[in-house]
Design brief:
The structure holds 2 protein chains of 2 kinds. By secondary structure, chain A is of the alpha+beta class. Helices cover 42% and strands 15% of the residues of chain A. Chain A folds into 2 domains: 75 residues, Ubiquitin-like (UB roll), CATH 3.10.20.30; 77 residues, Orthogonal Bundle (DNA polymerase, domain 1). In chain A, strand 3 and strand 4 form a beta hairpin. Chain B folds into 3 domains: 198 residues, Aldehyde oxidase/xanthine dehydrogenase, molybdopterin binding domain (Aldehyde Oxidoreductase, domain 4); 151 residues, Aldehyde Oxidoreductase, domain 4 (2-Layer Sandwich), CATH 3.30.365.10; 313 residues, Aldehyde Oxidoreductase, domain 4 (2-Layer Sandwich). Chain B is 28% helix and 24% strand. The chains are: A alpha+beta, B alpha+beta.
């Protein structure tokens, strides 16, 4: 059956089974490999994309459920917050192995898009679904605060 | 018995770099190599000997790019940045013009001297590359200067190189301008190179240096999982639910009927499904009906295994170290301290489940993956397909974490990929393990039980100590067994316990090597993952028994150990050890441990709330000699603390009747951000040769937390993960 997916602003038609998770549709069929596979159970957050603006674990979201939604992957992350987070990740030297970081960036961006000045507790609540075995948590937190400053500076200006 | 047998410095110092060679005319400008093999001296006399290859770390192209080949795997620990820093320093390049790539598999060219193989491990990348890479940079610089001197007809001594520009008076040339001419210059003898003194460093020790493993903030970095070759099939596998089981029979009819499923293969210890994409292969795998023969499989539960270990440590094992007569003193001791420690199996659980891409065609194999053990994997693949290692090429991509798992001493997942690819000559096969496959495949950090007993003299100092360890050997049956197992003792199980840093005149250290059908291997910081815990918790217990301050007590037993004493004094100051007043219900703990040439101390504050505790703050001091990239040193310490804390708080693999109980992150409880404490890392100033930082901070956190809990509650926790009830 054919499914129409709107990903990073473009419509893609896929003739696949409806239970295909969005993650694998994007990775294997659309060749956008920035979103990662880590657990397949919505436990680690490596596959996080924005679905209608909400940080979503796409390893368990079937394309039949994703049809009709606005989907953004790391490749299409061009919002003010998204750019600020990506830059902050470089400035705070957040990544180590980097495998989880697309998901971290997507979760962090979704947080900042709904709350541009999060407290430590709010950051922890929003980010504890994203595992990083390299243990970059302190720098993720610093990176989010750096990005928040950059976003708020833009808004003030 | 030489307790320093594992000190890589021995190997490091023994390996001498004796010459440099250039291989010009390769089309990329200046190619320079450093041959570190023992045949180097011969090679110098016979440059045309076709058997001797040249190493190549630096190439400079006319477009002014300096390409640096990295012989170690970049899986987050920073060898891209660190080795490039060493080269840039002596080359006087601009940081921006340097581009890093993984070196191909080539043991002759790319052996890490500390390991004696092309491999990444033992926290050795920077320690082992510090001189080599600086020499490679300095030699390239010499050739650029010689080319400029020839072009401008001036004295080379008058030429200045800075930030990627070669200049003399008003004349300047970029590296790219000189690349072709420089490649024609004679290669300098290594003895003729003068390296900078630390006061001249512009890159080494600099704080603001962007990491060279770019693309990890925007999804553009390539991992094995992202590799796609034309015509590639994705393979999934079903392994035996018990270790040692084999396929008896299976029915693949339903799987083969699924759209997109291409093949199902009986791999004897597994069944493999190949499909055009992962999801299809995963669904097909779940549709297989497999009967297993597990008559030879491990059927025990971890509870039974650990119970057997607890009995073992009550009786003498094989002596690893004997000094004086500890047993007699302990038998007659009036005040004997005893603690039994337990450590569970641990899964590395790196974020990228294991995977590998291979194309096998006749006697040739081409592999692409996050290769950590090039020498081992290349030889294993060559042996499997019956070819020479020259016919096995390995392209290395970034690896999504490792923590020891990727350097499998049996190349397990690599050979599984190649076995599958062998069935489909010429067709690229990507093996993708699910998270469940990854955790259930074993090669865990072994479970251990330790028993430590000591008697104190009148002044409260230990006069005798007996240490017994029970657990599996990680070295048995591996290429490293000859080096690592000495008189029946796997020294990697005993590091830090044999040759105790603390002065105890009478010592009896024993090992029971157990036979369990669980595949095991090293985990970040190897034996220290368990030995540091029992050593540091036990010394805290002795300090408490002696009524002494834990830091002063340690110092009193480290009189002969300047480095550990220095680090303890350093952290005492950074943590304000003697003056800090904590809130009610909090406790402060300390631990120190030396591994991989480095020394790390940590002070931890915990708060107690009923039967729960929270790690509030960690202050770490690391002595790594010269910190080539201070920010990466701090990042590695932070990350190692997080991994060690994960083991302290939650990581544990158990089996029930031989079936693994934890196979994904809902049951294997790894550290998440909400449990991450504030971490401050302080680097002890030093301009000594760099030592390791990938691992040494890992094993210090758990004992520091346990000691903090003891300080707060009086309860001495001796089992990981730590539980107050």
């Amino acid at each position: 059956m054919a499914y129409r997916l709107k990903i990073n602003g473009e419509i893609h038609e896929l003739d696949v089974e409806g239970d295909l998770p969005l993650l694998w549709a994007v990775r294997d069929y659309l060749n956008l490999t920035g979103s990662k596979f880590g657990c397949g159970l919505a436990q680690c957050g490596a596959c996080t994309m924005h679905v209608d603006g909400v940080a979503t674990r796409t390893c368990v979201l079937s394309i039949s459920q994703a049809e009709g939604k606005e989907i953004t992957t790391i490749e299409g992350l061009t919002s003010v917050a998204g750019k600020a987070v990506k830059q902050a990740w470089v400035d705070a030297q957040v990544p180590q192995c980097g495998y989880c970081q697309s998901g971290q960036v997507m979760s962090a961006t979704a947080l900042l898009e709904s709350n541009s000045n999060p407290t430590d507790a709010e950051i922890e609540a929003a980010m504890s679904g994203n595992i990083c075995r390299c243990g970059t948590y302190s720098r993720i937190k610093s990176g989010i605060k750096l990005a928040a400053q950059a976003i708020n500076a833009v808004e003030v200006a | 018995m030489n307790p320093d047998r594992f000190n890589y410095k021995e190997n490091f110092v023994a390996s001498r770099r004796s010459f440099l060679k250039a291989s010009a005319g390769s089309g990329v400008g200046l190619m320079l190599g450093l041959n570190l093999s023992s045949s180097a001296a011969d090679a110098q006399q016979s440059n045309s000997d076709p058997l001797l290859e040249y190493n190549a770390f630096v190439s400079i192209s006319p477009d002014n790019k300096v390409r640096v080949l990295i012989r170690n795997l970049e899986m987050g620990q920073g060898p891209y940045t660190g080795l490039a820093t060493c080269i840039a320093e002596e080359l006087d390049a601009s940081w921006e013009q340097i581009v890093c790539e993984h070196a191909p598999a080539n043991t002759e060219k790319y052996t890490t001297p500390a390991l004696g193989a092309q491999a990444t491990g033992g926290s050795s990348a920077i320690a082992s590359g510090y001189l080599d890479m600086r020499q490679a940079g300095a030699a390239a610089r010499t050739m650029l200067v010689a080319a400029a001197a020839a072009r401008w007809n001036v004295d080379a001594q008058e030429i200045v190189v800075s930030e990627g520009l070669v200049s003399h008076g008003s004349r300047t040339a970029s590296f790219g301008d000189l690349a072709v001419e420089a490649a024609q210059q004679p290669v300098p003898a290594i003895e003729s190179l003068s390296l900078k003194s630390p006061s001249q460093f512009k890159f080494i020790g600099k704080e603001e240096l962007a990491r060279k493993d770019a693309g990890k903030n925007d999804g553009t970095a390539t991992f094995t999982q992202d590799v796609k070759l034309p015509g590639m099939l994705t393979a999934t596998v079903v392994h035996s639910p018990r270790f040692g089981g084999r396929v008896q029979s299976f029915d693949a009819s339903e799987a083969l009927a699924m759209r997109g499923v291409e093949h199902v293969f009986n791999m004897d210890t597994a069944v493999a499904v190949l499909a055009k994409d992962y999801w299809t292969a995963l669904k097909a795998k779940k549709a297989l009906k497999i009967e297993w023969d597990d008559s030879d499989a491990e059927h025990r539960s971890t509870g039974n295994i650990l119970a057997a270990y607890r009995e073992l440590v009550e009786v003498p094992g094989t002596a690893a170290e004997t000094a004086g007569d500890a047993d007699a003193l302990l038998a007659n001791a009036a005040d004997k301290q005893e603690l039994v420690f337990e450590f569970p199996f641990l899964s590395h659980a790196q974020m990228e489940p294991l995977n590998c891409v291979a194309v096998v065609n006749g006697n040739k194999a081409e592999l692409t993956y996050g290769c950590q053990s090039h020498t081992q994997d290349q030889a294993a693949v060559a042996a499997l397909i019956g070819t020479d290692i020259k016919n096995v090429t390995i392209k290395t991509v970034f690896a999504g974490g490792g923590f020891g798992r990727r350097a499998n001493p049996h190349s397990d997942y690599v050979l599984e990929t190649v076995r599958i690819a062998q069935r489909l000559p010429g067709i690229p096969v990507k093996l993708v393990w699910s998270r469940e496959d990854d955790m259930e495949a074993g090669y865990w950090r072994p479970a251990y039980v330790h028993k430590l007993s000591a008697s104190l003299d009148n002044s409260g100092k230990p006069e005798a100590i007996q240490i017994r360890v029970a657990g599996q050997s990680i070295m048995e049956g591996t290429q490293l067994a000859d080096r690592a197992i000495i008189n029946g003792i796997d020294m990697s199980s005993m590091e830090g316990l044999v040759g105790l840093t603390y002065e105890v005149p009478n010592r009896q250290v024993e090992l029971h090597t157990t036979d369990v059908g669980v595949p095991v291997q090293w985990f970040r910081s190897v034996g220290n993952t368990h030995t540091a815990f029992s050593k540091e918790v036990f010394i805290d217990q002795l300090a408490a028994a002696a009524g002494a301050d834990p830091l002063e007590y340690r110092l009193s037993l480290l009189a002969g150990n300047e480095k550990e004493s220095e680090v303890l004094n350093f952290i005492a100051q950074k943590a304000d050890w003697f003056n800090t007043v904590l809130p009610d219900g909090w406790g402060r703990g300390l631990a120190i441990h030396s591994s991989f040439g480095s020394t790390v101390a940590q002070v931890v504050d915990v708060s107690i709330d009923g039967n729960d505790f929270t790690v509030q703050r960690v202050i770490a001091a690391v002595h790594v000699g010269t910190a080539v990239n201070p920010d990466i040193v701090r990042a590695q310490a932070e990350g190692a603390i997080a991994l060690g804390l994960s083991s302290a708080l939650g990581d544990e693999v158990t089996m029930t009747d031989g079936i693994v109980d934890q196979n994904n992150f809902h049951t294997y409880q790894v550290l998440r951000m909400n449990k991450m404490p504030d971490v401050e890392v302080h680097i002890v100033p030093s301009d000594a040769h760099p030592t390791g930082i990938g691992e040494p901070a890992t094993p210090v956190i758990a004992p520091a937390v346990a000691n903090a809990i003891a300080a707060a509650t009086g309860k001495r926790l001796t089992r990981l993960p730590l539980r107050l009830v």
